[in-house]
Amino acid sequence: MKLDSPTNLSTHTAVIRPSKLNLALRELWKAPLSAKLGIIIVLAYVFVALFAPWLTPYGESEIVGGPFELWSEKYLLGTDNLGRDMFTRLLYGARNTIGIALITTLLAFFIGGITGILAAILGGWADQIMSRVVDVLMAIPSLIFSLLLLTIFGTSIPVLIVIIAVLDSTRVFRLARAVSLNVVVMDYVEAARLRGEGLAWITLREVLPNIMPPLVAEFGLRFCFVFLTIAALSFLGLGIQPPTADWGSMVRDNATLISYGDVTPLLPAGAIALLTVGVNFIVDWFLQKTSGLKDGQ
Amino acid sequence: MDNETQANKSSVLLEIRALRIDGMRDDRWHEIVKGIDLTLHRGEVLGLIGESGAGKSTLGIAAMGYVKPGCRFSGGSIHFDGIDMLAASEAKKQALRGVRIAYVAQSAAASFNPAHRLIDQFAETPIQHQQCNKAEAYADAKDLYGKLQMPDPEQIGFRYPHQVSGGQLQRAMTAMAMSCRPDLIIFDEPTTALDVTTQIEVLMTMKDIVEKFNTAAIYITHDLAVVAQMADRIMVLRHGELVEEAPTCTMLSAPQQDYTKSLWAVRSFTKTRLAENTDEQAIISVKNVTAGYGMLDILHEINFDLHRGQTVSVVGESGSGKSTTARVITGLLPPRIGEVLFQGQALPKDYRQRSKDQLRQVQMIYQMADTAINPRQRIRDIIGRPLAFYLGMNPKQCEARTRELLDMIELKPDQFIDRFPSELSGGQKQRVCIARALAAEPSCIICDEVTSALDQLVAEGILRLLDRLQRELNLAYMFITHDLATVKAISDEVVVMLKGRIVEQGSKDTIFSPPHHEYTEKLLSSVPQMDPDWMRNLVAQRSPQH
Known about the structure:
The complex is a heterodimer.
Chain A: H1 20-30, H2 33-55, H3 86-122, H4 124-139, H5 142-153, H6 157-184, H7 187-195, H8 199-235, H9 247-253, H10 266-296
Helix pairs in contact in A: 2-3, 2-10, 3-4, 3-6, 3-8, 4-6, 5-6, 6-8, 8-9, 8-10, 9-10
Chain B: E1 12-25, E2 28-41, E3 45-49, H1 56-62, E4 71-80, E5 83-84, H2 90-96, E6 101-104, H3 108-111, H4 118-128, H5 134-147, H6 166-178, E7 184-188, H7 196-212, E8 216-221, H8 224-230, E9 233-238, E10 241-247, H9 248-253, H10 258-265, E11 284-293, E12 296-306, E13 311-315, H11 322-330, E14 337-342, E15 345-346, H12 356-361, E16 362-365, H13 369-372, H14 379-391, H15 395-408, H16 413-416, H17 426-439, E17 444-448, H18 456-473, E18 476-481, H19 484-490, E19 493-498, E20 501-507, H20 508-512, H21 518-526, H22 534-542
Parallel strand pairs in B: 3-8, 3-9, 6-7, 7-8, 13-18, 13-19, 16-17, 17-18
Antiparallel strand pairs in B: 1-2, 1-4, 4-5, 9-10, 11-12, 11-14, 14-15, 19-20
């Protein structure tokens, strides 16, 4: 039996509309436990990242004791291979790693999102050229490609951000183009074209608002990937450079301790894992909500 | 409950008592079916009519013991052939559905799986319920396809859904519903998406097959003339309540309730004034246009004029090139030969080469208001944008003018200006589209099937509004439609199209009075009339020609 015809429930809503904040709070209250947990985790990370200088007992790269000291009241999580306080560096690491990952992801979405929508709107040759360039970029394994580029352009934080953002924007491009293709065929986009609207208006006002849900969901996922890429690059020594604290290089610097059965070097890795889980909880919730909304449209 | 199962026509097949169904909206339960009684005898066809939101589909589906997600049964009883459908287990209901109760949906295209052949989808249910093996199911399918007068019944089942036309697909779906010889078929607006000439063929075969197998049917529609052909008895629903119930003939000749009368009266709307044929210069002239996609020409030598204060209706079945003509005028499809003149001046063929002012003069209103306005913009932005864009108004002027326009389209500005499109009904959305077109202060508006997605009462409201605006603003309309009732109501001039050519054109009176062109004749005679015997007579009349 086929029972999936669209629901005919009319959608008149009350004239009095609750404020946006109220709606958001109510939405939050109804969120599943996993999403709430995710929000708490992410908020905790943000708090730590913002207030690292006030939460830490020592300076970021200050040498405070001997190398590899054990956990004690003085050194909460011991010290690293150069005698810097692990706890301090873990908190500063949040700041650097998350901050850079966030900027990189935003940049990737800016580049990939705009070009993706443009490719869908323009179609024809413009679309072909952009899509083929993206195909070529995606054909090269991204980690190897970024290692190559970092070796060519040198390892500074701006270069790192731009390289990862450009490589990641290819994925965003594909998504943005695919979802925009469904929107550009809508009559309201045709109406805007016939009105004589420019590309900027059609991109930003007609198409972008309608592809936000999948893009935001993708943003959560991409953020995690970028985050892991940076950690991986740092682990390989080409990411964030010492003495700046970051979780990837912290694992590498203290890797020797693992052989002695000490869990300390795994703590930064754990921090990465926990944040990834938290972000994904939120993304899942968001995806579920938006896909539910789609059915009603 | 009576448990008699003999196929005697007077025995009750379906009995619904005081049924209540709730729907979830804004986190609250609202009653959408409010205590309806329904009795259906074996072999009887019951018509359910009402506007959208009247609860007719919900009620129809409820006969299968099913409600859509987000709805629930909150009271009453449903007995199908003695089985309590509300108490029955899901497995038991599953065994009934498709076998003893079948459902034919409005959009056959959306209900078929595009990845499987028609005949395999036909065979799925009987095989699953172990009624027969594959070979028998295939043979039966071919037999039914033949009974439903599908072309080449031996082979057509081996096509995929996209390889047959809309009317054929709807018939294939009826055949599928018939596959287990059910006792009850629920038709949910099965011909709404089809044009008149196709609709009549589908209706005829549906009526025929229901009679042949003595199947009971519930026929859900908003088109009175259609239900008059199909049903033995009609129930009129409104806001989830029963308004009136009577045998078809009684209902048509002597409706009792005011609401029913108003439904009947819709078709009586005609344009109040006939514009005198002006000899002033045409606003838009389409001159000798031939156009198409790629190498293929869709339109051939199209010529017609639009004058101020006049409505030209372009009529034809789907695929006749009506909408393509509109695309040529708006510049979306540059013609291969010929040109479009605006007040005697040739317009650039491509809309991208037209000036802002040229674009402003020709506005469009679309068939599907849902997709014609951006769901993420508020009404104030949707209507305000042309004001700012074409007329360079500042935000304050925009707001004032938007309010005026909302008044013009009979929506309360304070209530509607900050809403999103999803907070409007279908008719209100179409009104917003009209306001957006008016905002540009055009001299010509192209209306592409603007009322075909709306209920009759709502559609009539839109037609009246368009008519009033035309008188007030002296607009020229090009009205694309396949509905001849609309043409009669609104046009001054009529252009009849077939396969990309104009077969007949002239003033409304000329077109609607004989002698007709052969195709116009066919179109006119296919419009369902409010006479229960109309279809039978027409078929009898046409059959010698076949």
